[in-house]
């Protein structure tokens, strides 16, 4: 067990790091919400096109962000052992890999219209989505560079700037959307292209702010982050690549299970699909809290491991788990006690299917309550393992749990066993629970033993 004084000190440190990151993650989600709401005011076809295009951009971004996320534990571990030169080397090569990935995937966005047509999308929607992505795709490089700088600054425990930069990007994006989508203040009315320009503009602004902060803040100048940036460091690049690509694929595998569940929910009917569209949005908001705690756990674990502080590493891990578990239990109670009012927040009461969607969505939130704890524990375990720079085996464990167990269980429970939508979500509970068990077991087997 963790002593009360030790628990308090670890909890304060984790929350000081994690809460600004939680706010940053929630603000990042609101960027997508802003685009969706404003294009919903503009036109249905335009909204469908941007939702489609943004989904393709996001899936690609998740894959490429693994290199950025790898920087966080590597910098934390280097700081723990006092190696400031390695901090610069690893972060700089994380920036290199992010630039390379962004350039390599841009043709995917340029030719996205043909790809979406091949996937059965309507020609008008596919054409508008391509218009959007040809511009928005230019933002992949700055978006990934922002992620690297966020990881670097978070590992340095400069999480406040991460929060404020993200909030500023939300404001800039909303303002540019208003001007460019609708043609306000004499600007041309650009529709989906205006939304894309606004996104890229917000990303460039955020990148400039974080880059200047990292380069010019007096306490950070000693790292000389951009010193001889053009010089390759093949050893560091290989280290970041080896740690980062499994993180990207793990995120992709987890995000895709909900997309697969949405596809299967569409086979059941429109009302279940509408309810499914709301319930994951609700659970995603709660999940951001666990992601923030997980990020803080990664940093604290990496620092402790680099410093050889075995007791601090294990105690910090226990505290992170308890904090996440406590919040998860609160969300379980909220989802079970107030499912109807929560679902109703997302709907127009004039909708003739309002009552039916609320009823079905309430059932889904009950199942969401079941996987709150499992989902929290699996993401905390991933964060702890990343702090130990262990990503390849966790990738396989998570992918096995999600795709070899969770999705087949969803299909069997939903269709052959006749449970429908609730069965699909019960399958997700099974997959996430298995992932939590396997990943937590992996961490405690890998965590350094007390002497």
UniProtKB/TrEMBL annotation:
Annotated protein name in UniProt: Multidrug-efflux transporter
NCBIfam families listed in its UniProt record: matE (TIGR00797)
Instruction: Provide the transmembrane region boundaries.
Output: 39-64, 95-120, 132-149, 161-183, 195-216, 236-258, 278-298, 319-347, 359-385, 397-418, 424-445
Is Kinase found in the keyword set? no
> How does the protein's chain sit in the membrane according to the entry?
Multi-pass membrane protein
**Gene Ontology molecular function, alphabetical:** antiporter activity; xenobiotic transmembrane transporter activity
Q: Which InterPro entries match?
A: MATE_fam, MATE_MdtK, MdtK-like
Cellular location(s) = Cell inner membrane
Keywords assigned by UniProt, alphabetized? Antiport, Cell membrane, Ion transport, Membrane, Transmembrane, Transmembrane helix, Transport
Chief localization class?
membrane
Q: Which CDD domains match?
A: MATE_NorM_like (cd13131)
- From the UniProt record, give one GO term of the biological process aspect: monoatomic ion transport
Q: Does the record's keyword annotation contain Heme? A: no
Cellular component per GO? plasma membrane
């Amino acid at each position: 067990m963790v002593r009360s004084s030790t628990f308090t000190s670890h909890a304060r440190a984790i929350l000081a790091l994690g809460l600004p990151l939680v706010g940053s993650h929630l603000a990042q989600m609101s960027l997508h919400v802003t685009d969706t709401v404003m294009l919903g005011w503009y036109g249905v076809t335009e909204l469908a096109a941007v939702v489609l295009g943004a989904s393709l951009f996001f899936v690609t971004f998740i894959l490429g962000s693994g290199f950025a996320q790898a920087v966080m534990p590597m910098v934390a571990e280097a700081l723990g052992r006092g190696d400031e030169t390695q901090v610069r080397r690893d972060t700089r090569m994380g920036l290199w890999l992010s630039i390379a990935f962004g350039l390599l995937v841009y043709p995917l966005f340029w030719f996205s219209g043909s790809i979406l047509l091949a996937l059965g999308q309507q020609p008008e929607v596919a054409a508008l989505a391509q218009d959007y992505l040809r511009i928005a795709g230019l933002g992949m490089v700055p978006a990934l560079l922002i992620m690297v700088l966020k990881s670097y600054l978070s590992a340095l425990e400069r999480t406040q700037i991460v929060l404020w930069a993200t909030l500023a990007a939300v404001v800039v994006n909303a303002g540019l959307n208003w001007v460019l989508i609708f043609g306000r203040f004499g600007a041309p009315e650009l529709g989906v292209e205006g939304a894309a320009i606004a996104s890229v503009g917000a990303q460039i602004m955020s990148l400039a702010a974080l880059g200047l902060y990292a380069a010019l803040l007096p306490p950070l100048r000693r790292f000389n982050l951009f010193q001889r940036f053009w010089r390759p460091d093949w050893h560091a690049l290989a280290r970041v690549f080896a740690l980062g690509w499994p993180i990207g694929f793990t995120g992709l595998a987890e995000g895709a299970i909900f997309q697969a569940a949405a596809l299967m929910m569409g086979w059941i009917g429109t009302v279940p699909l509408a309810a499914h569209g709301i319930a994951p949005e609700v659970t995603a908001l709660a999940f951001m809290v666990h992601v923030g705690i997980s990020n803080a756990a990664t940093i604290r674990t990496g620092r402790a491991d680099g410093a050889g502080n075995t007791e601090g590493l294990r105690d910090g891990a226990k505290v992170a788990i308890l904090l996440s578990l406590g919040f998860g239990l609160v969300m379980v109670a909220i989802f079970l006690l107030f499912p109807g009012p929560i679902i109703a927040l997302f709907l127009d009461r004039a909708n003739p299917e309002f009552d039916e969607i609320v009823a079905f969505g309430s059932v889904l939130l009950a199942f969401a309550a079941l996987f709150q704890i499992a989902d929290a524990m699996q993401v905390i375990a991933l964060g702890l393992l990343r702090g130990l720079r262990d990503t390849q085996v966790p990738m396989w464990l998570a992918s096995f749990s999600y795709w070899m167990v969770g999705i087949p269980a969803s299909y069997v429970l939903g269709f052959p066993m006749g449970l429908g939508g609730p069965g699909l979500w019960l399958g997700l509970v099974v997959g996430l629970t298995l992932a939590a068990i396997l990943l937590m077991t992996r961490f405690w087997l890998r965590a350094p033993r007390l002497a």
